[in-house]
Amino acid sequence: MTDDSDAAHAGTAAAVEHVAATTDDLADLAMALLAADSQNPPGDTTAAAAVVRDAMDGAGVSVADATVDPAKPNLLFEIPGERDLTLLYNGHLDTVGYDASEWTRDPLGERATVDGDDRIYGRGATDMKGPLAAMLHAARAYQAVDERPPVTLAYAVVSDEETGGDAGLPSVVDDLDADGCVIGETTCERGRHSVTVADRGSIWLTLDATGEGAHGSRPTLGVNAVDVLWAAVSHLRESLTDRPLDVPAEVDAIVDESIDYYAPIMGEQAARDTFRYPTANLGEFHGGDTINAVPERARARLDVRVVAGVDTKTVLADIRECLREHDRVHLTDVSWSRGTYVPVDGPIATATAETAAAVVGERVHRRSATGGGDTKTLRNAGIPTVEFALGTDTVHARDEYTTVDALAKNAEIYARLPATFARAHDDA
């Protein structure tokens, strides 16, 4: 081990010890973020951004503003490291909405002991103001012990994630340069731990059907557009879910891990079908104007998902071929994206999974997400990205909460990760 490695190890150990000794400071930061209402819509995160600025100013870190919408600020800053490697931490400030009348706890932050757990309640506690607080606290720890982390730590704290808006990460991604990234989305549920190393591709379809009108008492004189469209949608879904996906060899390990992770949650067969075949959800179906008339028009919208590594365009070609059998049904709008992934044995996946496993003392799966998110934006920009945070199964739920134990373990993992990432990069 070189002198530089010894110094980096000592710096990491000191930062980890500081994290362990300042759990209440971490909890206070999480509570301050929760107290800053940032529901999206409308998505005003100025108060939450001010909490971040104050926390980092107090740690002696200069924060840059990278904002395109004054109500939705984005904050960028760095902690210089010992090596010419950069690890990016990404988190978002906005939350989904809530109806306070449905909550039994304060949605703007409440700490309570329940069933022996020291809990922090609030909208965003687990998605993702709690994990964001842990990321920020890891940066504060290195500053507090006056040690440089083994690699440079870059931070992108963004807005507008929950609605997929353009004012957040998409507006700053071109300014980001990192060798790996962790997004602090909660990736653990029902006591099972994971790092998401992939997302799925999507095809969003709008189908319009035309019929011929007639009186509802004489339906045989018309052509019912609802019936026409339902037949096409049923045929399409059946053909898609019977179509095995051509998964590249390098994604097979991710698929196997994903099936293993989700099998206890959704059942073995459902987990296999989710990743080995396309899924097709009928999200919208509209037709007809009145009960006593044969409808002349109907519209449906479907959400088709395919595992990373699959050429989405080949699945779309199959969809078009299937619809050729339904001459009254037309594909009037389509948008699509390809799934993205990082290798399960690549530096960022290995470092995050191994660091988390060492802290929690349990297996950490390396799996695909069932949907997609900001990971896709970062991976498509050339930054190898994973998601990881400990939390609870209350994402977007009423009485959302995290535990102080989860916050502390997250902060420890984020503080340890720079050293593990540096070693994994050397071994790659």
UniProtKB/TrEMBL annotation:
<dbReference type="InterPro" id="IPR002933">
    <property type="entry name" value="Peptidase_M20"/>
</dbReference>
<feature type="domain" description="Peptidase M20 dimerisation">
    <location>
        <begin position="198"/>
        <end position="327"/>
    </location>
</feature>
<protein>
    <submittedName>
        <fullName>M20 family metallopeptidase</fullName>
    </submittedName>
</protein>
<dbReference type="InterPro" id="IPR011650">
    <property type="entry name" value="Peptidase_M20_dimer"/>
</dbReference>
<dbReference type="GO" id="GO:0016787">
    <property type="term" value="F:hydrolase activity"/>
</dbReference>
<dbReference type="InterPro" id="IPR036264">
    <property type="entry name" value="Bact_exopeptidase_dim_dom"/>
</dbReference>
<dbReference type="Pfam" id="PF01546">
    <property type="entry name" value="Peptidase_M20"/>
</dbReference>
<keyword id="KW-0479">Metal-binding</keyword>
<dbReference type="Pfam" id="PF07687">
    <property type="entry name" value="M20_dimer"/>
</dbReference>
<dbReference type="GO" id="GO:0046872">
    <property type="term" value="F:metal ion binding"/>
</dbReference>
<keyword id="KW-0378">Hydrolase</keyword>
<dbReference type="InterPro" id="IPR050072">
    <property type="entry name" value="Peptidase_M20A"/>
</dbReference>
